[in-house]
């Protein structure tokens, strides 16, 4: 994931501290913890990583079987694969069957809306591909998590009415999070408040993207009592910095849980994905220790993470 990527030299100047909660977060969270334990999901963006063979996938695992292995280690995936083309129902059923056969049955696929809808149609006149997308992903059944709608960098606040009309078109019971990247959604107070008030009114969430070069996308605005965080790490050479960032997120999420946060979807990305399972496992351990989640840790094939990292460098 190249979004928000900066040079190693620029990284030294980045302020990674999380901003204070936004105004919409204070309205959404009522200040009282739920009587139920908050649900937590941690995953990656793709399962098709050859670098993970001999790391978390057994030796000689074929690419056709990568998903079978992925679902043994994670309880969710940010499903970017469906962005490039709308998958047919047979393919969705095949993926679901792999989750049924190899996971503990609480696995969630979190599909990204097709680019035909978001980037080509730009949400206008997109009813036909949207209906097809929704009909096909419904085949996931109980394995369907929230969907996320990512708009391009040039989709700015002048399009808010288009965005609102599109969200109104979607089923009211469909869990959806919206990722916006145009800087003026966040930098202009009027745009910001109008956006998050609209999302809250429609019961749709706002993706928080934590990337080094786009700190404005760490907007800390919750329009529903659920969060969808896309965390972009900077690789094993910046391990200490990335882990410190994870720690700060865990502290903030714990605070939000005490105020009524119900669900957490936390997806790990890196510009070079080979070490993402290591960062993901650090996240899972931190969630289990501090947030009371009970996510199974990742089962690595090596004895030590240092050895695992050396192995991945062979590919």
List keywords for this structure.
315 residues
Describe this structure in words.
- Helix content is 38%, strand content 14%.
- It is α/β, with parallel strands linked by helices and 315 residues long.
- The chain has a six-stranded parallel sheet, with helices on one face. A three-stranded parallel sheet has the order 4-5-6, covered by helices on one side.
- Helix 3 (66-73) links the parallel strand 1 and strand 2 (76-79).
- The radius of gyration is 19 Å and the shape is globular.
- It starts with 7 loop residues before the first helix and ends with a helix.
SS field, number of helical segments: 12
Radius of gyration: 19 Å
Averaging pLDDT over every residue, what do you get?
A: 93
Low-pLDDT stretches: 308-315
Structural class computed from helices and strand pairing:
alpha/beta
- In total, how many beta strands? 9
- Strand content of the residues, in percent? 5-15%
Principal-axes shape call: globular
What order do the SSEs take from the amino end to the carboxyl end, as H and E? HHEHEHEHHEHEHHEEEHEHH
User: What gap, in angstroms, lies between the N and C termini?
Assistant: 19 Å
The helix fraction, in percent, is 25-40%
Largest sheet: 6 strands, parallel
Arrangement of strands in the largest sheet = 3-2-1-9-8-7
Short characterization:
The chain has 315 residues and is α/β, with parallel strands linked by helices.
């Amino acid at each position: 994931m190249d979004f928000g990527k900066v040079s190693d030299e620029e990284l030294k100047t980045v302020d990674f501290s999380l901003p204070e909660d936004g105004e919409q977060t204070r309205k959404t969270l009522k200040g009282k913890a739920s009587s139920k334990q908050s649900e937590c999901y941690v995953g990656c963006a793709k399962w098709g990583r050859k670098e993970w063979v001999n790391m978390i996938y057994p030796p000689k695992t074929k690419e056709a079987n990568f998903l079978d292995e992925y679902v043994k280690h994670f309880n969710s995936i940010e499903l970017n694969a469906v962005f490039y083309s709308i998958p047919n129902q047979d393919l969705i059923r095949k993926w679901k069957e792999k989750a049924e056969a190899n996971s503990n049955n609480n696995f969630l696929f979190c599909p990204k809306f097709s680019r035909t809808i978001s980037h080509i149609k730009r949400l206008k006149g997109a009813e036909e591909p949207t209906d097809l997308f929704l009909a096909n992903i419904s085949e996931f059944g109980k394995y369907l998590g929230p969907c996320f709608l990512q708009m391009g960098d040039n989709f700015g606040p002048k399009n808010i009415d288009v965005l609102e009309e599109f969200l109104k078109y979607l089923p009211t019971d469909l869990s959806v999070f919206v990722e916006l990247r145009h800087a003026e959604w966040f930098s202009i107070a009027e745009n910001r408040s109008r956006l998050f008030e609209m999302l809250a009114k429609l019961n749709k969430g706002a993706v928080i993207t934590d990337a080094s070069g786009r700190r404005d996308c760490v907007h800390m605005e919750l329009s529903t009592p659920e969060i969808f965080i896309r965390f972009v790490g900077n690789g094993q050479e910046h391990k200490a910095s990335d882990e410190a960032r994870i720690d700060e997120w865990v502290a903030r999420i714990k605070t939000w849980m005490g105020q009524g946060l119900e669900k957490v979807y936390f997806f790990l990305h890196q510009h070079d994905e080979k070490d993402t399972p290591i960062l993901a496992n650090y996240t899972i351990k931190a969630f289990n220790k501090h947030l009371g989640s009970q996510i199974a840790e990742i089962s690595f094939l090596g004895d030590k993470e240092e050895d695992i990292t050396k192995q991945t460098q062979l590919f």
